[in-house]
Amino acid sequence: MKMYLGIDVGSVSTNAAVIDESGSVLSSSYVRTRGEPIKAVQKGLKEISERLGLSLDVIGVGATGSARHLTGILVGADVVKNEITAHAVAASHFIPSVKTVFEIGGQDSKIIFLRNGIVADFGMNSVCAAGTGSFLDQQAGRLGIPIEEFGDYALRSETSVRIAGRCTVFAETDMIHKQQLGHPLENIIAGLCDAMVRNYLNNLVRGKQIEEPIVFQGGVAANIGIKAAFEKELNKKVYVPQYYNVMGAIGAALLAKEEIAVSNAKTNFKGFEITNFNYRTSSFECKDCANICEVVDVSAEGESIAKWGDRCGKFSGGEGGLLSDAFQQKCEQERCSSVDGS
Ligand code: SF4
């Protein structure tokens, strides 16, 4: 069976998904990045290969997310695209008429406006933590409630306590104050969900038209309290797709499928054997001109395989990092020996 692999590497999570020719999801993985994107990619691919078998016939690979260029080099991606495109493509795949996508992850949030299946506009917020999942995680920890139960608490509330959601400091101070006044926890959590939704809409929508269908994806979409708060605030139905937390990876896989269909090229995928390689990253400052670029160097098995971060292309060869011939050869050898079983 021919398959396509998509990988979405963000600062909080690293997600991978494998789809078939019809775009159905065969397997997916969700791994915490924990500041080590290479290890997270290796762990995610290992999980998938163990589930589906090493001899998977992957004929296209896509990479997205904040570490998409690094990931593209590591795995040999056929297409590398930004998160907005990947999330929009995945949302359109499951709900073709989608007009608005809410995406809230651990450390940033996005809104995407689609018209006739094409991205017409978008907004991103990576500055204000009050509108992201990490703030919810932090508050759940402070209140001693598992994050998975946070939404249930909100739905059990009789009324919502008004919480200042403009920034994390005000929100936390306000929540503590409301706790001291004796408000039930359920009502405070419902108030926090409302505040987070207000913060998201104020920061990202900025007077633009939110049209239905609306798809809500990203890790925070698991929180039914936030979904309910969106529906209450907008008086519109909000859909959470089945694979809400790996939609970026699914989008990357769909983009790889499109790319291969157009180019008819053989995939650059290095194979699942890369999960066994020892990678190392280091960086250095180039002081050869006033730009003083911080150049990142990735090595595998002791050999430098790619460099980027240089504005002039002095180290990367002008293409944001090229694989060395020797490493390319090693990948191919490993792949052959593993497939042959020799
Ligand atoms: S990498 Fe190029 S642009 Fe950057 S500091 Fe060195 S010479 Fe200048």
Give the arrangement of secondary structure elements.
Layout: E1 2-9, E2 13-20, E3 25-32, H1 37-52, E4 57-64, H2 68-75, E5 79-80, H3 83-94, E6 100-104, E7 109-115, E8 118-125, H4 133-143, H5 147-155, H6 168-180, H7 185-204, E9 214-217, H8 224-234, E10 238-239, H9 247-263, E11 279-285, E12 294-300, E13 303-308, H10 325-340
Parallel strand pairs: 1-4, 4-5, 6-9, 9-10
Antiparallel strand pairs: 1-2, 2-3, 6-7, 7-8, 11-12, 12-13
The structure holds iron/sulfur cluster.
Give a description of the structure.
This protein is of the alpha/beta class. The radius of gyration is 22 Å and the shape is globular. Residues 319-342 have low confidence and may be disordered. α3 (83-94) packs across α9, α5 (147-155) crosses α7 and α7 (185-204) crosses α8 (224-234). It contains ten helices and 13 strands. β4, α2 and β5 (79-80) form a beta-alpha-beta unit. 45% of the residues are buried. The protein folds into three domains: 2-91 and 247-276, ATPase, nucleotide binding domain (Nucleotidyltransferase, domain 5, 2-Layer Sandwich), CATH 3.30.420.40; 96-240, Nucleotidyltransferase, domain 5, CATH 3.30.420.40; 279-340, no CATH class. Strands 3-2-1-4-5 form a five-stranded mixed β-sheet. The protein has a five-stranded mixed β-sheet with strand order 8-7-6-9-10, with helices on both faces. It has helices spanning 37-52, 68-75, 83-94, 133-143, 147-155, 168-180, 185-204, 224-234, 247-263, 325-340, and strands at residues 2-9, 13-20, 25-32, 57-64, 79-80, 100-104, 109-115, 118-125, 214-217, 238-239, 279-285, 294-300, 303-308. Iron/sulfur cluster binds at residues 286, 288-289, 291-293, 310-312, 314.
